[in-house]
Amino acid sequence: xxxxxxxxxxxxxxxxxxxxxxxxxxxxxxxxxxxxxxxxxxxxxxxxxxxxxxxxxxxxxxxxxxxxxxxxxxxxxxxxxxxxxxxxxxxxxxxxxxxxxxxxxxxxxxxxxxxxxxxxxxxxxxxxxxxxxxxxxxxxxxxxxxxxxxxxxxxxxxxxxxxxxxxxxxxxxx
Length: 174
What we know:
The protein is an alpha+beta fold and 174 residues long. The protein has one domain (22-172): CATH 3.30.1330.40. Helices cover 37% and strands 22% of the residues. It has four helices and five strands. The chain has helices spanning 2-19, 24-30, 80-102, 127-142, and strands at 48-51, 54-60, 108-119, 149-155, 164-172. α3 (80-102) packs parallel to α4. It is globular. The N and C termini lie far apart (37 Å).
């Protein structure tokens, strides 16, 4: 009986701890990430579509709060490190849209799938290193829930000359 009581208390504590909400505003501040009001789509589409508990987020580029983008071709105009920073900025842009869509980042259950596209030269082969700028940011923000399946590919060109474009699928609370 004592073992059963101890087990019930332990399970209650685990449930309590896992149900606690993270203060994402504080977490983002610690990571030096400042979200901004997302820009309007540049063509005839919407930023995100929800179906069931999945949120499909349209491709975003490395847009800054002032509306400017990091542009250039990795392997020509930008180094791998600068491409990584562009992917990190794209993560911030996607987080901004995610928060605007959901109202609260605690509604994110998991970053599921990511497609990372790098505007690069024909001979450039380090696309995964560039897109790590995005992936590292998602894991820093969400921990295990930020780990995702991913593709990282090279593109001859991206809209507006952006260095990176990333789209993602997110599992959210019902």
